[in-house]
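Sequence, structure tokens reproduced for reference:
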Amino acid sequence: MPEQFNGKIGHFIDAWLEKFETRFRHREQVAGTILERTRVETAIQNTKPEISLDLIHHEADYGAWMTWMCSPHT
């Protein structure tokens, strides 16, 4: 599991997302397809509490995240 996201930006966020992508790929090889919502919730749960709350409130205000990854590389 990637380290807990602490709000850093730039290359750190790209590396954090890549670690999750790798984890999800490996997990799918063992357990099969991982639902997009499971990916979103896993990523949210792996952030500092105040960031997690911000993300949950964002969903409540604007709707559920449609994809777990918001990187320009996707």
Summary: The two ends are 20 Å apart (CA to CA).
